[in-house]
């Protein structure tokens, strides 16, 4: 009796987590137009998806945005983390705290303030405004990921490199960056995912010139759920699984 | 004959208003094994880091073979360091760790290959070149760190408590190993430790440090047998301090001192003495003789502790006035009275001429334990 309780509970939790995903994947191969009856196996919604040029364009836009936002925020974030870790300067604590404020504040506040700022400086809403906004909310996550790795970093390693004849720059290139690489990668992936599925901030700062996937799906769903969305969801799922496996593989290889 | 390699003059360093080094002067000779010994926070690590170039003195200068190094960055100093926790690069193989310094010098590939192999052979790790540091034991990592530092053929090797993370037995092996390496390479070793036994057994000279000052500089024997002050006497080895009073300064080079009512004649010490003056009579536990109670010589007391140590028998004796005396005696199988029981009355004496005299010092305030700087 007592043994069954935890098992049942665990099963329920996992069902709750995975049933919606399984339903999504299964129904993406459904011939039928409605989401509640099975009409046989088919790839027609994948075909429809790839024939929907606006959708494919939105997908490429989203991927490109996520890629660039993750890369820019990893570059800035890594340098910020290094500065916060290595140097003592005035206002260091304030700077550190401000990162947490960006992370903790409700996304809607960030969205409104960014929009207000962009309108004030007269920035045309589109790719650039989206990129700036996405870099802003990704940055704290990257900084914190990299700082966590740096706090466990042996302070003697840079000294050992200098002692053996490396300049500060060479030391950074050959010792510091390779050692914190897993954190850089993790930060990048985190930024990529955050950017890819962001709706709130994107709704405010995107313009008609650059449509991205989450907003496109959102507007599609509003006029009625199309099975195409299931196909798209399945593709995104496979894509993120591949990313996950890739990152784990790189991490494992770097440890060996 | 002895050539100065590195000379430190008037080195002063403060951290947050606290003086870690206080106008310190030191000459290190070419080819010697010199040890910086002292408790935590005595400045020994700061001194070593200054030689390596990781810290800069507030005042004073460092010269190596006549060349001023005071403001030279670490990568341009012809010295290499073995770090306390080895600081091996975790993402590189053993080979690449050792090759790092040579790659920085942009040596040709064949030369790097050959010199790294030689260095690894020297520390008996030829078969481990492809491993990563985390696949090695502590002792092996230590040896890689040494190979990495000596492969550049530095003028001087700086070792920052390199054996402190190893267990007792491995430590002993590495001590012998390091001495052998130093002899073979013929380069100067500057070794930092807080372990006085390690310092005594390995060094040509020992620098005893406290509070940023050199307390004593000498051979291990000088430091142990003729400590310059009470701190060195207490820090290096175990010592009995007997209160003495000068009874008479004799015409010849001797003085008569009253110790526990015994009148003993000692050689005149280096410091000035006058009649009636108090001083410390220092005796190492192995200088003490435990005698039968009916013996004429010696001070009466009783045994309160006996520790069998294998080759020696260590005792603690309480004298009648409450002074505690440590004695360490070698076994003498011919002496039937050798083994005393706890609580048994005995007399304590010592071999004349083995004592060491120090003037009384104004009692210093208790030192606060600082962090190792």
UniProtKB/TrEMBL annotation, chain A:
Its main location: membrane. Keywords: Cell inner membrane, Cell membrane, Membrane, Transmembrane, Transmembrane helix, Transport. Residues 59-247 form the ABC transmembrane type-1 domain. GO terms for cellular component: plasma membrane. The chain crosses the membrane at residues 12-29, 63-85, 97-121, 127-148, 175-196, 229-252. PROSITE patterns: ABC_TM1. The keyword Cell inner membrane applies. Belongs to the binding-protein-dependent transport system permease family. CysTW subfamily. Required for the activity of the bacterial periplasmic transport system of putrescine and spermidine. This is Spermidine/putrescine transport system permease protein PotC. The gene is potC.
Automatic annotation (TrEMBL), chain B:
It holds the Pfam family TOBE_2. Residues 6-236 form the ABC transporter domain. Its EC number is 7.6.2.11. Keywords: ATP-binding, Cell membrane, Membrane, Nucleotide-binding, Translocase, Transport. Belongs to the ABC transporter superfamily. Spermidine/putrescine importer (TC 3.A.1.11.1) family. Signal peptide: none annotated. SUPFAM superfamilies: MOP-like, P-loop containing nucleoside triphosphate hydrolases. It catalyses: ATP + H2O + polyamine-[polyamine-binding protein]Side 1 = ADP + phosphate + polyamineSide 2 + [polyamine-binding protein]Side 1. GO terms for molecular function: ABC-type putrescine transporter activity; ATP binding; ATP hydrolysis activity. InterPro entries: AAA+_ATPase, ABC_SmlMolc_Importer, ABC_transporter-like_ATP-bd, ABC_transporter-like_CS, Mo/tungstate-bd_C_term_dom, P-loop_NTPase, PotA-like, PotA_ATP-bd. One of its GO terms (cellular component) is ATP-binding cassette (ABC) transporter complex. This is Spermidine/putrescine import ATP-binding protein PotA. Part of the ABC transporter complex PotABCD involved in spermidine/putrescine import. Responsible for energy coupling to the transport system. The complex is composed of two ATP-binding proteins (PotA), two transmembrane proteins (PotB and PotC) and a solute-binding protein (PotD).
């Amino acid at each position: 009796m007592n043994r069954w309780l935890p098992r049942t509970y665990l099963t329920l939790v996992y069902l709750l987590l995975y049933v919606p995903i399984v339903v999504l994947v299964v129904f993406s191969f459904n011939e039928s137009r409605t989401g509640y009856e099975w009409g046989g196996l088919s790839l027609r919604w994948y075909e429809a998806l790839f024939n929907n040029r606006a959708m494919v364009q939105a997908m490429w836009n989203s991927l490109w945005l996520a890629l660039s936002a993750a890369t820019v925020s990893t570059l800035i974030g890594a340098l910020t983390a290094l500065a916060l870790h290595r140097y003592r300067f005035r206002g260091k604590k304030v700077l550190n705290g401000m990162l947490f404020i960006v992370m903790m504040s409700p996304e809607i506040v960030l969205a409104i303030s960014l929009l207000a700022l962009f309108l004030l400086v007269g920035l045309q809403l589109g790719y650039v405004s989206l990129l700036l906004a996405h870099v802003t909310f990704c940055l704290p996550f990257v900084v914190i990921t990299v700082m966590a790795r740096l706090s466990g970093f042996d302070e003697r390693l840079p000294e050992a490199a200098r002692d053996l004849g490396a300049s500060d720059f060479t030391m950074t290139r050959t010792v510091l960056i390779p050692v914190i690489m897993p954190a850089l990668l993790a930060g990048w992936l985190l930024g990529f995912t955050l950017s890819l599925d962001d709706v709130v901030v994107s709704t405010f700062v995107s313009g008609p010139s650059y449509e991205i996937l989450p907003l496109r799906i959102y507007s599609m769903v509003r006029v009625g759920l199309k099975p195409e969305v299931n196909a798209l969801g399945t593709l995104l799922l496979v894509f993120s699984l591949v990313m996950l496996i890739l990152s784990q593989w790189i991490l494992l290889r770097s440890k060996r | 004959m002895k050539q100065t390699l590195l000379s430190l003059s008037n080195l002063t360093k403060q951290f947050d208003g606290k003086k870690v080094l206080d106008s310190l002067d030191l000459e290190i000779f070419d080819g010697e094994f010199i040890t910086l010994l002292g408790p935590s926070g005595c400045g020994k690590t700061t001194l070593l880091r200054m030689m390596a170039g990781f810290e800069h003195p507030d005042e004073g200068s460092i010269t190596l073979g006549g060349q001023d190094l005071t403001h030279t960055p670490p990568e341009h100093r012809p010295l290499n360091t073995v770090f306390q926790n080895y600081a091996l690069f975790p993402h590189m193989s053993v080979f690449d760790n050792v090759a790092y310094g040579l790659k920085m010098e942009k040596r040709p590939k064949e030369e790097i290959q050959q010199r790294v192999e030689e260095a690894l052979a020297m520390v008996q790790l030829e078969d481990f070149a492809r491993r990563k540091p985390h696949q090695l034991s502590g002792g092996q990592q230590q040896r890689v760190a040494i190979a990495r530092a000596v492969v550049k053929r530095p003028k001087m090797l700086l070792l920052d408590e390199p054996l402190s993370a190893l267990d007792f037995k491995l430590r002993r092996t590495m001590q012998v190993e390091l001495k052998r390496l130093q002899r073979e390479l013929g380069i100067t070793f500057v070794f930092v430790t807080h372990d006085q036994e390690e310092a005594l057994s390995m060094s040509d000279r020992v620098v005893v440090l406290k509070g940023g000052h050199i307390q004593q500089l000498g051979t291990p024997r000088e430091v142990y047998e003729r400590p310059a002050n009470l701190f060195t006497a207490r820090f290096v080895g175990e010592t009995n301090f007997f209160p003495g009073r000068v009874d008479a300064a004799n015409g010849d080079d001797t003085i008569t001192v009253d110790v526990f009512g015994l009148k003993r004649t000692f050689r005149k010490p280096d410091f000035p003495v006058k009649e009636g003056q108090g001083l410390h009579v220092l005796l190492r536990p192995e200088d003490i003789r435990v005698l039968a109670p009916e013996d004429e010589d010696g001070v009466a007391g009783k045994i309160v502790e006996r520790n069998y140590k294998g080759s020696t028998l260590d005792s603690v004796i309480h004298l009648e006035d409450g002074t505690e005396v440590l004695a360490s005696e070698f076994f003498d199988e011919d002496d039937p009275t050798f083994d005393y029981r706890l609580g048994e009355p005995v007399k304590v004496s010592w071999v004349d001429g083995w004592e060491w005299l120090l003037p009384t010092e104004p009692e210093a305030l208790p030192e606060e334990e600082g962090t190792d700087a």
